[in-house]
């Protein structure tokens, strides 16, 4: 893999109803989510999210009864690339982070699930590329393209500490900010010279630090109407953002929070 360390290389929707999620995100984003789990997932219902260009946007993990009983709830999670999962997990554990799933080998690579010191969960992964494609890049994240995640936003109780944490462990940069007045600053994040997202303070109505992933859509007004028509809830926006496009936030019918970004046509 040629993506830099710290890149978002995969996104996963945990949901109680993968068929319902397929209908919802198909209508809103244009994705095709497989009707059945991937046999390579080894006993869990894990389905791939297909884009119209033939690529993959991520995966869907069906939450079974045991997972729900253990406290799992519908949510989106991101995967950060690291060439050494074990070393990354050890360093994060020693730096105040928590380990929710220890390093584990899967047919697609070695992964672990962690949370930063403020409590926002994420995965780390060293993937196994398909044979003959050892130099392939992940394109699940794209700054500009619809049906990819285009922006990664961390809402956290301690922005300064979070920025320092991700800088130490993943090499991220933090240059530039947008003044949000009484809400403090919206600080931009980079991997190399690519803007990947931002960090902002935890809002009073938000229960815990978490990542929100903004999925690219072809037309923000069409997508917002589709959210409501397909049983979701629009919680904020659409609102104009720097550069002239529009962003919005929503909750899907199973309860997972998400963002959308795209033009107004």
Automatic annotation (TrEMBL):
Family matches, as Gene3D superfamilies: 2,3-Dihydroxybiphenyl 1,2-Dioxygenase, domain 1
Signal peptide: none
Record-annotated VOC domain positions: 7-127, 145-263
Entry-linked InterPro entries: Anthracycline_SecMetBiosynth, Glyas_Bleomycin-R_OHBP_Dase, Glyas_Fos-R_dOase_dom, VOC_core
Pfam family, one: Glyoxalase
Alphabetical list of PANTHER family matching this protein: GB|AAF24581.1, GLYOXALASE-RELATED
Name the record gives this protein: Glyoxalase/bleomycin resistance protein/dioxygenase
Source organism per UniProt: Sphingopyxis granuli
């Amino acid at each position: 893999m040629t993506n830099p360390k710290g890149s978002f290389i995969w996104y996963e929707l945990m949901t109680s109803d993968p068929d319902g999620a397929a209908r919802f995100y198909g209508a809103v984003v244009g994705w095709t989510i497989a009707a059945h789990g991937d046999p390579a997932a080894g006993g869990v219902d894990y389905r791939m999210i297909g884009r119209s260009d033939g690529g993959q946007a991520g995966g869907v993990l069906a939450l079974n009864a045991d997972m729900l009983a253990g406290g799992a709830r519908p949510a989106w999670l991101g995967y950060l690339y690291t060439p050494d999962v074990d070393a990354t997990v050890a360093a994060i554990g020693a730096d105040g982070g928590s380990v929710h799933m220890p390093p584990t080998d899967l047919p697609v690579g070695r992964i672990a699930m962690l949370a930063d010191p403020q409590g926002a969960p994420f995965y780390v992964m060293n993937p196994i590329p398909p044979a003959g494609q050892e130099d392939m890049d992940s394109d699940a994240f794209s700054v500009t393209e619809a049906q990819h995640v285009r922006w990664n936003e961390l809402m956290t109780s301690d922005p300064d500490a979070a920025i320092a944490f991700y800088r130490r462990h993943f090499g991220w940069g933090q240059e530039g900010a947008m003044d949000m007045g009484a809400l403090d600053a919206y600080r931009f994040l980079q991997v190399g010279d690519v803007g990947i997202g931002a960090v902002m303070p935890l809002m009073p109505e938000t229960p815990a630090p978490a990542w929100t992933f903004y999925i690219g859509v072809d037309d923000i007004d069409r997508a917002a109407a589709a959210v409501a028509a397909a049983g979701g809830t629009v919680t904020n926006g659409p609102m104009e953002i720097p550069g002239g496009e529009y962003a919005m936030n929503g909750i899907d019918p199973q309860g997972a929070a998400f963002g959308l970004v795209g033009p107004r046509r």
